[in-house]
Amino acid sequence: MLKTTATLALIISSLISSTTNATNTTKSSVLERTNPLAHVDTLKLCLDYHNLTQDDSRNQYKKELDYRAQLSTKDHQLIDQNQVENSMTRCGMYMALGSPLREQSRQIRPMTFKTVHVYPDKYYVSQSGMIVETLDRKTDTLPPQLIPIAPKIVPPPVTPKH
């Protein structure tokens, strides 16, 4: 019985040490990334992608942004076609079209931001990083409102007591 307990203790201690070594190896490999883009700001990567001309560079940028979980499936389908559709990420829009002429943001709820991005032919509205609305830009129209227009208040169905 003493041999079995000692053997069991030896197995458990070796499992614990191998788990600790695997965890330390994983942590060090995450911290020691060799990709030169690993230390570049995410927004800068998204904006700079549009001006890249070589496929190798473009693939490196996409790989880094995928590593950071910034791109959707729709982004991958439309970025290189220079198209933007609803449900793309804001990063995907920047990658496809480059920097907007102008943007304006507003916090509409806690942790929820709404932004209007102005491009030469379209207005794109993003909410919390996703494109939610696409509007044509015409000379006689204003950009979409960031502040929602409050509905008219209807009086209650019962007459108030005096």
- The chain-level mean pLDDT equals 82
Helix content: 40-55%
How large a portion of the residues is in β-strands, by DSSP E?
15-25%
Overall 3D geometry? flat
Order of helices and strands: HHHHHEEEE
Question: Sheet bearing the most strands, described?
Answer: 4 strands, antiparallel
Number of strands: 4
CATH architecture of the domain at 36-136: 2-Layer Sandwich
Q: Going across the biggest sheet, name each strand in turn.
A: 1-2-3-4
Low-confidence segments, given as residue ranges, are none
CATH fold descriptor of the domain at 36-136: Beta-lactamase Inhibitory Protein, Chain:B, domain 1
How would you characterize this protein structure?
This protein is an alpha+beta fold and 162 residues long. 40% of the residues lie in helices and 17% in strands. It has five helices and four strands. Strands 1-2-3-4 form a four-stranded antiparallel beta sheet, with no helix packed on it. β1 and β2 form a beta hairpin. α2 (42-49) packs parallel to α5 (90-97). The longest helix has 30 residues, at 2-31.
Quick summary of this structure?
With 162 residues, this protein is of the alpha+beta class. It is built from 5 helices and 4 strands. It has helices spanning 2-31, 42-49, 55-67, 73-78, 90-97, and strands at 102-109, 112-118, 122-127, 130-136.
